[in-house]
Amino acid sequence: MKKIILASKSYDRSELFNRLNIPFEVLDTNFNENDYKGRYFEPIKLVKELAKAKVMKAKKMLANEEKGTVIIAADTIVELNGEIIGKAHSEDEAFNMLKTLANRSHNLITGIAITEIGDSKIIIDYDVTNVSLLNLTDDDIRNYVRVGEWKGRAGAYSIRDRASLFIKRIQGSPSNVIGLPMQKLFEILKNEFNLNLYDC
After folding, report:
1. Domains (range + CATH), the chain
2. pLDDT under 50 in the chain at which residues?
3. Is 75 marked active-site?
4. What pTM, to 2 d.p., does this model score?
């Protein structure tokens, strides 16, 4: 069984692995995304480039790991009518994001990058899930924001928690909304890295 390292400090991504009882370790690369966000304005290109940069930084940090160790990195954004919506940095920002998304459909786009210690191969892919929210009142939004789930989440909500109360419809991968398209990850690991998650 190959060792898996998740190059992400996201609690939600870790929980996806924990729920499936997949052994893994977390590496926080402390990656600064701001440089890339000023360079790439097309949503899919942005998440793919960010995921690639994160996995390559992790690979450098793990240069002494045993060969065959698999490293996974990802980046998720919200896209609404071509506009990239990132993470809120305050309650006011979170409120305004959710007010903008309420009663509308938007896309959750996750870029993923996977590589292996001792191999130059890197696989970069992405997934898109369309999400529709209910028509939330200002009080609905304020009550949700007060809970604090918006912190560190693209679009200022977490479908794992109370935001599930106002998700009207999901088209695509549900796990992608949480932060990792697990079905796509499963296929890439099996076909490109000879790692079957059923064997974990």
Report:
1. 4-199 (3.90.950.10)
2. none
3. yes
4. 0.91
